[in-house]
Design goal:
single chain, 212 residues, seven-stranded mixed beta sheet
Length: 212
């Protein structure tokens, strides 16, 4: 797939980026295109994503990741992304949060190699890729400003784990289905905010802050 096709697809995806609250600069659009080109090349041998169309990558991968920016500011922090896979939402958010430290947790060795190569290709600093399960991550309490996770099960266990590891005022942000969001929203000890993904009834982003 040639570069012009990818860049035209990114330009065609401007509406979805703006629906996510992002007014993309030319530099951001170029980074997104570079990311997609790399992802498509790696995806030929490694199943990083089932989405193959660049325009859909913009709307499903980048725009849905960028929806989390309503809870984030580029004033510095530490973002832990669990089960990073192809880098969404964590590596995509790093494009908008250059001053943040980013830790990507991914148990698959080959996917870790992709994440490291993507960070290098995009010129991103303060990115650490950890080959591990999140349950095995060695860290103390109050380590992270934000924890993100997309399409991962074991929500109850993750929520218990995250509570102790979020810094005061920190948030856990989850990309998940509406039914799971309904169940999680009833959990005590958290203040939850919910956003439905534009154009979808079933895909939801849920952001929670522990009650202290």
């Amino acid at each position: 797939m040639n570069s012009k096709y990818v860049r035209d697809a990114v330009t065609a995806g401007l509406t979805s980026l703006r629906e996510a609250g992002i007014d993309p600069s030319p530099a951001l659009l170029e980074s997104i295109a570079t990311y997609i080109e790399l992802l498509l090349r790696w995806n030929q041998k490694l199943n990083l994503t089932t989405i193959r169309d660049p325009r859909e990558m913009v709307s499903r991968n980048f725009s849905e990741s960028f929806l989390a920016m309503r809870w984030l500011q580029d004033s510095g922090g530490v973002l832990l992304d669990i089960g990073s896979g192809a880098g969404f939402p964590g590596l995509a958010l790093k494009l908008l949060l250059p001053s943040w430290k980013l830790i990507l947790i991914e148990p698959n060795t080959k996917k870790c190699a992709f994440l490291s190569e993507a960070a290098r290709t995009l010129g991103l600093s303060e990115v650490r890729v950890e080959r591990a399960r999140w349950q095995d991550l060695q860290c103390g309490v109050s380590c992270f400003t934000t924890i993100t996770c997309r399409a991962l099960g074991d929500h109850a266990e993750l929520i218990r784990w995250a509570r102790e590891r979020l810094a005061p005022g920190g948030r856990l942000i989850l990309w998940l289905g509406a039914r799971d969001a309904d169940e999680i929203s009833t959990l005590g000890g958290w203040n939850w905010e919910r956003v439905t993904v534009p154009g979808s009834r079933e895909r939801v982003i849920l952001a929670g802050m522990p009650q202290r």
